[in-house]
Amino acid sequence: MSEIAGNRKMVNEVKKRTQTIFVCELCGFAYRDLETAECCEQYCYSHGHSCRGITQRATGKPPVQVMKSEPKRHANVSTHEQCQHSKV
Predict the structure, then answer these.
(1) 48-67: pLDDT as tens digits
(2) pLDDT tens, 22-44?
């Protein structure tokens, strides 16, 4: 599990068959690698919504939308590029 915002653990590790999936606790999107899940949760924590550039690589969507998505007209497209794992 990851530690962000002090000692609070937010990325959940889920075992599915032979795979390990990492889930952002804030938005619920699932990823194959820990780094992308951590990047997602950092973005969600600091912006209050998920980032389309990151969630496009998600392997699973949340059954219920937990937080709002990134606004459609986002003028500053480079905000999620601060995370090195947000680039495809």
Answers:
(1) 888 999 999 999 998 876 66
(2) 999 999 999 999 999 999 999 99
By residue count, the chain amounts to 88
The amino acid at residue 6 is: G
Q: DSSP E strands: which ranges in 1-88?
A: 11-16, 19-24, 30-31
Answer whether 84's CB lies under 8 Å from 74's CB.
no
Helices (H), 5-84: 34-47, 52-55
Convert 53-85 to b/e letters by CB count within 10 Å (16 or more is b).
bbbebbeeebeeeeeeebeeeeeeeebbeebeb
- Its pTM stands at 0.68
CA distance 74 to 51: 10
* Nearby residues of 88 by Cβ (< 8 Å), 6 or more positions away: 53, 56, 57
* Tokens of residue 82, six digits: 């601060």
